[in-house]
Specification:
This protein is mainly α. It has helices at 3-28, 33-36, 42-61, 69-90, and strands at 99-100, 103-104. Helix 1 (3-28) runs parallel beside helix 4 (69-90). It starts with a helix and ends with a strand.
Length: 105
């Protein structure tokens, strides 16, 4: 393998880590947080990020070409989630019955 192919293999591996991080983070967020933040639903984001993670895994396993569009699209989907959706759903607080006007008791 040439140094350039090692570089792209490391790049696909870093993209896979980002895609898996976004997928696991979306799993951990509460379902009502997504519509409350004005974003797409949680199941839709899980499908998008799950497919992105599978594409990222295939890119690493089969040494994708640097010009391949699918790993790039998968990374962009994860980056959109992490940059736009995650900050909004992260601060969501589910107001249950044990919550007063200034927060939980």
């Amino acid at each position: 393998m040439t140094p350039l192919s090692w570089f792209f293999e490391a790049l696909w591996l870093a993209a896979l880590v980002v895609e898996l991080w976004a997928f696991v983070d979306a799993i951990r967020r509460p379902t009502p947080a997504f519509p409350a933040a004005g974003k797409q639903t949680k199941p839709l984001w899980l499908i998008i990020l799950g497919v992105a993670s599978v594409i990222g895994l295939a890119s690493v396993a089969y040494s994708a070409s640097p010009l391949s569009i699918f790993p790039i699209v998968a990374f962009v989907a994860a980056a959109i989630y992490l940059a736009d959706v995650r900050p909004k759903v992260k601060d969501f607080r589910n107001s249950g019955t044990s919550s007063g006007p200034y927060g939980p008791w």
